[in-house]
Amino acid sequence: MQIEAIEIGPVRASADQRALSARIVFRFHDKAGRPAAAHFLGKTERAEDDTASKVAERLVWDAYRQLVRMPEFRSGREEVSFADAVSLGAAA
Questions:
Q1: What residue numbers bound the domain in which 29 lies?
Q2: Least CB-packed of 22, 33, 57, 83 within 10 Å?
């Protein structure tokens, strides 16, 4: 799987305001060349020195962590890579 684009949905805070989450979408083409997407709920703890880019990076890493724990990646049958120019945008 080569991730070509990453979309981040609106960031939401937990009721106690200590955790943040957002829908993360990895866009890629399947083995037949058709557009495909993998959806995850990225989560992270809030930090005092947070910026929007730091939060986005942590949310994407959490989604990536979830992706590589899927059986096809853990077993080594599939590999994850990123396109040279991964586009980053807002999820619809």
A1: 2-90
A2: 33
pLDDT digit string, tens, across residues 54-77: 999 999 999 999 999 999 888 988
Rounded Cα gap, residues 34 and 37, in angstroms: 10
Mean pLDDT of the chain: 91
CA-to-CA dists, residue 30 to 1, 8, 11, 26, angstroms: 7, 21, 28, 12
pTM, rounded to two decimals: 0.86
Q: What is the bridge-based pairing of β-strands 12-13 and 19-29?
A: antiparallel
Q: How far is CA 81 from CA 74, 78, 92, in A?
A: 14, 10, 24
What's the domain count of the chain?
1
In a 13 Å sphere around the CA of 66, the CA atoms on its Cβ side amount to 16
Only one residue has tokens 């853990």, namely: 74
